[in-house]
Batch of 3 targets.
Target 1
Amino acid sequence: MSLKVKDINEQTRWQDLHMGLHVYEPATSKTFDTGEWRTNTPVLDMEKCRQCLLCVPYCPDSSIPVKDGKRGEFDLGHCKGCGICVSACPFGAITMKEGK
């Protein structure tokens, strides 16, 4: 039995639901904004940034875009606010602020 989301309600039996934790098509995370989960937000101080790009490979969400060899502002649509980039920056150019 294949149910559509609109047909699922509190009377739906668990046996009729799709199994969870399955990826049905590749690369869906690019279209799914996970930044809503963030409780802390990274802030870049461009005065301190030396464009070493050390923060880029450490970001688990690929939220630090690079164009023409220079990093850009954070992709806050996908950044979950983990703060790993703060630890990776040797120049103290990245800090975290509370909230979104």
Target 2
Amino acid sequence: MIHSSDPKEITETILSWKSKGLKVGFVPTMGFLHEGHADLFRRSVSENDKTVVSIFVNPAQFNDPEDYAKYPVNTEGDLQICKEAGADLVYLPAKDTVYPGGIPSVELKVPHLMKNLDATTRPGHFEGVLLVLSRFFHTIPADRSYFGKKDYQQFLIVKDFAKALGFPMEVIGVDTVRSEQGLALSSRNARLSPKEKEEALLLSRALRLGENLIKQGEKDPAEVLTVMKDVLDSSSLIKIDYLEVLNAETLEELHILKGEILLAVAVFLGQVRLIDNLTVKVS
């Protein structure tokens, strides 16, 4: 496995692979990798001849400087996980390499998918995601890129963004990896206390109860929201950031539950913000 901080070397390596007819997959990450990331890497390895991983904590997508400063880093461990999962090339750029002269004052948006959820509770977040990806998609001209569906809104936004700007890359969403207890794997979980980790299980429990209610025939989004909110409110440690029942393709508000439905939640547990979601399809 090769790793480099030189964007020119990264691009030349990928183009040399593609000149031989090899298919290239790309998984962008912010490091502090876990099994959820490894699952993305393995998916890429199974569908492509070569797999590229980027590790870069992107300052442009943090609206809280303290959150950026606290983001965990473990480069040596990350490289080992990449190697074990079968990655061929790891891009480790410095901040000044990605943003020479500082973060530019431009805004990239996909307006119809940025009206709610994290787009409103974390202003500037997705603009920062799209900014860094616009640069990485040029540096890493892959055939496919892979995103975890735990960040479901991000997956939809990036997919639409890549299509709108004509990046010749298929954007693929991969299902969330969970612990045996149901907690969605996240780099932020490392900052939870044992008690907070236990309380965090209420997120997936609330989502599953909402899913079951819909499958049993409930058509009123308000009823589903009430049930899920009651579960989360049972913990004095949880502060709800948002709780939504939306159309899973457009992220529009639903008045009657039908089609493919997204149940999405974000909460604060102490100083740590967690998100989770699931989709359910009904006729």
Target 3
Amino acid sequence: MPRIALPGFEAHYEQAGDGPQAVVLVHGNFASSRWWQDLLDTPPPGLCLYAPDLRGCGRSQQPGEGYEMAQLVRDLEAFATALELPRFHLVGHSLGGSVALAFALDHPERVASLLLVTPGPADGLAQTRDGMLVHLLGTERIAHWLPDLAQHRWVLSHVLPHVAPGIGEPLQFARITEDALATDPRAVSGYLMALAEWNALPRLPAYPGRAVVLIGERDPLVPPASLAATIEALPHVVSVLWTGVGHAPQLERPEDFRRLLLATIDGREPEPLQPVALHAAAGGWFHDLARRLGLGGH
């Protein structure tokens, strides 16, 4: 269980593979390094994978502060520097996609390739499910309400299957649910508000590197339309839409994700996604959740 001292907290991270090319994997909100478990279990040849738990998440310490985008970028820079990674391939999922993009904008010389997996929109959360939540409750109410909600197993067990409908392995849900429950409640609300307030859109046209953006057609949190402005603003972008996939492509289609990662690192065009049998997704889960929480009609 590797740990590393970073400014303000001690971070847990997973490392796998011993190849010459370093890859840093950044998870999302309510999450941990376990969201990369398929890759970590069987790392592709030639790669060395590093998957940190963000502050307040997984098995990292919970400092109770620093849950802003700028601080997450500083944490990632400190992590890479401490591990002596002057240049590396960067992959980010959801919140981690936003962190990866923000890091790439600040430190383009350190990013060998950039893969953004269902990332938060660079122009904020207005068009997403999380944005609806922010609009519905307001940031102050979220700061008081979401920390308690984050500790409710029923909520997580109800939401996660609809967030990533392609996952068919119960053990994966059990693991990520346990890590979600372990997240610092202050981090959950802090990261959500950080995404709501973040706007990097004006900076995107100046990004010199190639960016691959992976979109889930059935993503209930970051629907494809919400990423249109991000994709349009990046000058060297490859957008990939996976049909039948939700918010966690790396868990729902691990082998396809492995191939996409290698194509991104090599600078190749992504391979077409092969169809598979899909699990039925229940509709209207967000509004059902709001109704059960007594938020309907607001």
